[in-house]
Amino acid sequence: MRLADGQFWPVPIVLAVSKKFAGSLDLGETLALRDGEGVLLATLLVEEQWLPDKNQEARLVYESEDASHPGVDALLRSGDVYLSGRLQAVELPTHHDYRHYRQTPAQLRDHFNANGCSQVLALQPHHAIHKAQWEAACHYAKTHKAALLIQCHVGLGQPEDRSHFSRIRCHEYTLQQSPEQTPQLNLLNHASRSSETRELLLTALILRNCGCTHFMVSPEQGGILRDYEADLGICIITTPTIANHAPLLVLSDAELSHHLHAGLPVPDGFSFPEVLAEIQNAYPSRLHQGFAIFLTGLSGSGKSTIANALLVKLMEMGGRTITLLDGDVVRKHLSSELNFSKEHRDINIRRIGFVASEIVKNGGIAICAPIAPYTSVRREVRSMVSSKGGFIEVHVSTPLEECEKRDRKGLYAKARAGILKGFTGIDDPYEIPENPELRLDTSNQTPDQCIEQILLTLAELGYITH
Ligand code: PPS
């Protein structure tokens, strides 16, 4: 918890590089630190490099060594060698959104000083601020003549998802509820470390550096922070329970949106109507979310036939834009340079997954129909798409004998004759999906029956009404 000079510092912020890169460096060299677009943000004079004990770091920072913890996972995947040295800032990262809310700690301190604020109360909500918390903060600010700062924690890069914008719009609505106060809203660019205790301590430290004297947290967080109050140099106050309030419903934005979509009543007085409307809008119900239908199976199993029939059926239903990413079409337009090695097949499927996830993110339907013979990359695509909307894996399980009997393109015959090498099902593997949402065997069902089953599954999952 301390730097070598004794300063309190809860989370190491390090520059991790590969062994190969570290091996190519000499101490005393200067490195350029650039953002994703190549803009020079800072330079680092390399004074030291060492091999960290990452398991110990994981244990101390994340209280876990389990790689399924996102912070531990990121730590273990980062480079093996840490570099340190004198850091020289060149310029701050550019952001195109909400520039007026992006003040540096020094600018915030100057602002509070210029306005004669001897007390500044900070809130750093993870989600929207609802009534009880806001009233408690305003009450405190009024009785103690304190200024208010709402610090909104955002990621490092350009924002990608609408929850970022929706969260800030929620805060703007909340601020409008107390015209007598002039709270500051500020965005803090910070890579989340998914560490409960240490991250909270770091947040408190950052808030102190922004000129805040008090930090309002939940009673549980208060329990963690109190022990460190002296080191942190900021007073911790907890959200008091306001007697005349309905019992406080503690829900994340996503939980609250499910609550709203399920038609469950949100207690009167829980939040502000504009905030609730914004959350409902940012997290649409499944009926308004995008989804991908991922058909996987052997060549000739009937994927393309199902995909094409499903395309027109969904178009007939209307409502969402639909894109078909058929195996052959993708091979022609997106992946023409790739062959059928495992490595290239995985790249092909990742490309399909990326395009599908972009479509789903924007509320559309992506129908994908590649062979996709490998489990691990199918899993990758599932997680890529699921974070944006629905993912429905359909294993077109028509047996090999039937596919070979059909042999529409004559490729099985070529593979059997040894003219075509590495053909899926003949001399290349197909790993059977373990838990697809649906299995369809086109040797005993018509395309119409297959489509009906897909539509029923979509309806059961809530993505369409059927
Ligand atoms: S993969 O494995 O998912 O990347 O394959 P995909 O992009 O779906 O491409 C499959 C189509 O390519 C033709 N083809 C082959 N398939 C499998 N193995 C080998 N070696 C091969 N060579 C060419 C074949 O026509 C597949 O088309 P479909 O529509 O599946 O029959």
Automatic annotation (TrEMBL):
Keywords attached to this entry: ATP-binding, Kinase, Nucleotide-binding, Nucleotidyltransferase, Phosphoprotein, Transferase
GO biological process: hydrogen sulfide biosynthetic process; sulfate assimilation via adenylyl sulfate reduction; sulfate assimilation, phosphoadenylyl sulfate reduction by phosphoadenylyl-sulfate reductase (thioredoxin)
EC number of this enzyme: 2.7.1.25
Domain Sulphate adenylyltransferase catalytic: 100-228
Source superkingdom: Bacteria
Pathway as given in its UniProt record: Sulfur metabolism; hydrogen sulfide biosynthesis; sulfite from sulfate: step 2/3
Binding locations of ATP: 297-304
Family membership: Belongs to the APS kinase family.
Name of this protein: Adenylyl-sulfate kinase
Gene from which the chain derives: cysC
